[in-house]
Write a structure and sequence with these properties.
By secondary structure, the protein is of the alpha+beta class. It has helices spanning about 5-20, 90-95, 100-105; strands at about 30, 50-55, 55-60, 60-65, 85, 110-115, 115-130, 135-145, 150, 160-165. The chain has one domain (about 5-165). The chain is built from 3 helices and 10 strands.
């Protein structure tokens, strides 16, 4: 139909999310997109050290049955996976690919940081279809208790910084 109508819906959802979910306490998520150029998998498709681009800050609504992050989070009975809902407009403004199956595969290699915890993106879903455009992107995640911090490289590559994620068990000492 009309591009103006589509743009109005995209702008409106971004404005509503910005007003409702930006309160100084819950000001969104950091999305870490994998740096495919520097992350080289083994012949089995795995790698111990993964590199990520500098995080992108997105306004988001978090939905989960978890009410609070505690030390005993592994013992909680979690009935649903945490979901982070972001607007398509925010992704468009920040050049986050989200339109093709290849884009979704790329996004499934991402991490989300929210309130000091790290979540592995398991799936990406689109919601709110209006005028040939989806208004929302839903990141279906799983908390990753093995990732406690991300190391950001000091020297950025061209216009992006690298972030390294080292996965370890809690029994193994982490290297600095």
């Amino acid at each position: 139909m009309d591009k103006d109508i589509r743009d109005a819906f995209l702008d409106g959802t971004q404005e509503v999310f910005s007003i409702l979910f930006t309160d100084g306490l819950n000001d969104g998520i950091n999305l870490y997109l994998m740096d495919l150029e520097h992350t080289i998998p083994s012949p089995y498709g795995e790698t111990k050290v993964k590199y990520y681009h500098k995080p992108v800050r997105l306004v988001s609504k978090m939905r989960s049955s978890m009410t609070e992050r505690t030390v005993a989070i592994a013992d909680l009975d979690i009935h649903e996976e945490p979901n982070f809902v972001v607007t398509a407009k925010d992704c468009i403004l920040k050049n986050i690919p989200h339109e093709t199956e290849e884009d979704f595969e790329y996004l499934r290699k991402s991490y989300i940081e929210y309130k000091g915890s790290f979540y592995k993106v398991d799936n990406v879903r689109l919601r709110g279809y209006v005028e040939d455009t989806f208004l929302f992107i839903v990141f279906v995640c799983e908390i990753d208790l093995d990732v406690h911090s991300l190391m950001v490289c000091e020297e950025p590559q061209e216009e992006t910084a690298e972030v390294s994620v080292e996965e370890s068990t809690q029994d193994e000492p982490q290297e600095e």
